[in-house]
């Protein structure tokens, strides 16, 4: 049976393919017919280049309609889509290419020279470009080709995408997502969140992560409706566009920034039937300020790269079941969640432990890391998320912290280990500890605490550390501040006490 994600989504396309799928920044419209033709042309080009089903296609481009159609073309012909954050530096990309060994890399024209060099070293046979408007060598090469009509017949367990997610060791892991993972999530969310004909989603998220790519786009396509598709989040633009939309999805920073706009009023938001927040904790104060100002409750849901969406607050509110601040709601249909201690013993309601998940949304494993994969799965197939949580007596899931050493800044994950490795390698540094501190805009801000080395003589400064990080790491990972200490606080086992650092420097950004 063919379970190709493209075909599952296409089942929801409107029968009138002239209907709009995307309205762009310049006000132009693209139809479902445009989507089918362009995705089909990219699929034809991949086949002509010799890309085979199962091969990886790595893409580091700006957000554009063609970037979405490329994603769909890759999936359609059975290859594996591998999106990369545009912020990643050459050093970061080199690792992804050597690990994933893609058959094709698509990059921004301005990074072509650097990427070709990296691609050659990693044995990647093809490099093409795509610019911010969706033009470039890839689109040129596809323009005369006849679109592929028939999708590659994929099984539910075949790979559709690999998304890299950093690890506590500092080494990124490629989460392997199948056609079945992605389609089960899209169909579940479409029903759960009441998607209906005529919906129009305001899309301002990046499209290289689960939230903007799968949750927003797949759900819209499975519903055959429209997106107003903007290159990035901009609160002032959102105010102009919200009155013409019916659904908005965002990370908490979007809602914090909207609330900072005096023009964000009930009237502006009146046509929106659903505001969704996720990817990072939504503060109760944001949830409450939003309800007070707008008269609507944000629907907070919880997910991760490895599982797509896991839980959601209720869409239809009843006196009994409401969207509750500080909770992420209930497991999606067909998804099971439980809370367990570190040995896998399942805990009672209200007890705090690690959240574990099982269901059709749960990924196939980490790319070429069978041992790492095995470590994260329980014998009965539950995946341990690394998120500390509890399920309350009514069944609402609460995410109360993280067992993994992770910072989430503006919805992006930053693993301290990766930053510490870069800082520790600098002359003048003895050791460092990276923590996330409360930040009014980003939720958490990456902050480094450094012990200088006496060996190298010099007095390394905050600016030098930030500059060195900027060379090797995407901007969102670069510490916003660096503090110096005589010694890092350690417990009796010699482990750095990050909780203490978070306490000491906790006020740093409060007034920012
Ligand atoms: C940008 N910067 C950030 C940052 N984004 N720094 C820390 N954290 C971030 N998230 C840097 C910029 O490079 C710049 O640095 C400086 O901060 C100020 O930038 P800005 O203009 O304020 O940022 P902006 O471009 O407006 O971006 C902020 C943002 C964006 C919140 C709109 O980060 C964003 O769209 N985040 C969404 C992330 C997301 O989609 N996550 C989903 C993951 S999926 P400098 O040094 O250049 O001045 C997932 C699963 C799930 O988690 O459950 O959904
Ligand atoms: P990522 O690896 O980028 O997919 O990030 C997934 C992580 O984001 C999860 O493991 C959680 O720690 C966090 N996360 C996502 N949604 C929420 C939420 N609503 N509340 C708290 N944390 C969240």
Summarize the structure in words.
With 512 residues, the protein is an alpha/beta fold. It folds into three domains: 172 residues, ANL, N-terminal domain (Rossmann fold); 130 residues, Luciferase, domain 3; 100 residues, ANL, C-terminal domain (GMP Synthetase, Chain A, domain 3, 2-Layer Sandwich). It contains 16 helices and 25 strands. It has a nine-stranded mixed β-sheet with strand order 2-1-10-9-11-12-13-14-15. Strands 4-3-5-6 form a four-stranded parallel β-sheet, sandwiched between helices. Strand 24, helix 15 and strand 25 form a beta-alpha-beta unit. Helix 4 runs parallel beside helix 5 and helix 10 crosses helix 12. The longest helix has 18 residues. It is globular, with a radius of gyration of 23 Å. The mean pLDDT is 96. It binds malonyl-coenzyme A and adenosine monophosphate.
Distance between the termini: 55 Å
The SS-based structural class is alpha/beta
Largest sheet: 9 strands, mixed
Shape: globular
According to CATH, what is the topology of the largest domain? Rossmann fold
Helix share of residues? 25-40%
Number of domains: 3
The CATH fourth-level homologous superfamily of the largest domain: ANL, N-terminal domain
Bound molecules: malonyl-coenzyme A, adenosine monophosphate
CATH class bucket of the largest domain: Alpha Beta
Residue stretches low in confidence (pLDDT < 50, at least 5 long) are none
What is the CATH architecture term of the largest domain?
A: 3-Layer(aba) Sandwich
Count of helical regions: 16
Q: Mean of the pLDDT scores?
A: 96
Output the strand order for the largest sheet.
Answer: 2-1-10-9-11-12-13-14-15
E-strand count: 25
Radius of gyration over all CA atoms, rounded: 23 Å
